[in-house]
Write a structure and sequence with these properties.
heterodimer; A: 340 residues; alpha/beta; Glucose Oxidase, domain 1; 2 domains; nine-stranded mixed sheet; two-stranded antiparallel sheet; globular; B: 335 residues; Rossmann fold; seven-stranded parallel sheet; six-stranded mixed sheet; elongated
Amino acid sequence: MRRLLMAGLACLGMIGCIATANAQNTSSDCSKLVPVSPFGPDDQTGATNRVTPQVTKAAAAEIQEGKTISLTNRLVDGVPLFGTRFTKTVLTATGLVPGAALGENGLTYMEDTWLSQSHVGTHLDGMGHIGKWDCYYNQTPMGKYVNQNNMTRLGLENLKSFATRGVIIDLVRVYQAANKLKTNAACRKPCLDKGTVISQADLEAGLKMYNVTLREGDMVFLHTGWVDLFEQFPAQNALYNSGEAGIGVDAAKWLATQKVIAVGADNWAVEVIPFEKPELVFAVHQTLITDNGIHIIENVKTDDIAEEAQKTGRATFFVNMSVPKAVGMTGNFVAINAIR
Amino acid sequence: MTRLVLRRRPLLAGLAAFGLSRAAAGARRYRIALADLDESPGVTLEGLGFTGTELRSSFEMAARTLPVDMLYFDNAGDPARTIAHADAAIAAHVDLLIEYSADADANAEIARRLAAAGIPVLALVHPVPGAPLYGPDNRAAGLIAGRALGAFARENWPGKPVLGLVIGDLADSGPAIADRVQGITEGMQEFLPAFELARLDTGGQSVRADALLTKFLLTQRGQRLLIATLDDLSAVYAKTAIETNRRQGDCVIVSQGLDRNIHGTASEKKELDPNNRGSVVLGSVAYYMDRYGYDVLPLALRLLAGETLSPRTVTHHGLVTAANVFREYPPYDMN
């Protein structure tokens, strides 16, 4: 009874009626909330449709020295995790117990048990990760497509290739050049402090710095320097998770017009936190994933490739990354290599 | 008669209409100073749980995407320092001063000095002569709480005798507390014309709400109580008293403020939380002092663009409960 009354009380005040929100959660008209996909009404893939053989072939031209640079942070118990997420690894090493070796050839073995959410470490957000009410990418009424274990649409198994060109945008250098860098004292190297809104103009300045023009099918990686806090785990976990510099909604919309397939950053959400408007939560996620089918990649290790770009004057590379055919999953950790 | 304007989110739309959106940021940047009431640790604002630091932070956050360069002063509750900061703002050639000072004499002096320097002033919460004022509508906020309590009694205890109870810093001589209590009283009366209202004065120490209410409950066995707390921390302590005395069945609380004492993130799980819908704390009336910057800076820009503002603009107030708290204050640590 009290619960019912509280819904009524919410309406009594000047704030919007909660009943409305609940109705939206269960039966939204998705055609009014989410754009239709440019890849067709049945598409479950999203932006990786743009990685055509021509795109991959053109990206291969970035491989000039055969040098590989990892964009992946270590995934180990103790790294910063978002919200209440956890990881726990357990090694099964019973094969090493005296007498446990098998056969005359003395076979022993070990295995891991991995307990965790999949959105940890350097990871990719899939099409099923973020929605508006119950409406997800391509006007999918997701309430119809979930069971106790997984989604039955928009899972990672629908993704295509990520063999494309990567572009690093060094926002630290952009902000230094513009004499507006506000670093955080805990960063051992310069970083953009949390709450810094990265604009379209900032992104364009970063591209201009290396004479790069974005092209369809690119993956864009943003270096804000925040990864330095990740690397100090667990000492700086609380600070790392307390906010970040990131793109605002306008910059996200501009990236969508460039037809990129993914936007990654060296922080845990790519977008600015605290948010641009406090009443709007993860609006960049909705813009990129829900509205445009563009992946977000979080906790990317961008410092090495940013340094390499500065050293060589070249900010582009071939991306070597694949996503497991993890049926019905909303996202997963990934390993990314930049090959040059 | 002062014209009241109820605004919050529409201000941003108004800002865009005046061509002061992000797109226009390159056109002209303004230098605006905020002289904050008091950022001293432990000091809270207007009898609520908000701090000066939170208020200032809202300006820092709001300024990120507006064509403004901010200058910040902490008046530290000191009239002499407040006037000195006004002089500093004049010396810094600011385009506008946002003044948050509770001292009427200092405010009059500031008005005189800023007018002489040709710099407009926007007053926060307390009037500065001749300056548009932005702040809470304490009576309206009290009214929302009173109505919520009255509606609860009518719905859950129809025809049963109830007693109203206000808990808070009732000795505070400022008009804000009196206005809130008046609103609470009127709101309850709309539903319960014959009710009586008792008062427990915490003297500004919210922790006392626990002991005061415990003692009061012992004198009111079997009495149904509609409790309006004047700040969120008092609500938390009053709840402890109710639970300790096992009076959850005949007591209910609505608070004032909606500050971080009563709501938090997904991980924090404070009193107002979507997963805590059975609490005796029905809700708290929002004052949004930790979001003032998002309302006030657009007002300041409109003033600088030559618009004549209403003499008084009041912040939006609304009842926030477990059912809508994450809509009003969405946490980013969901999961």
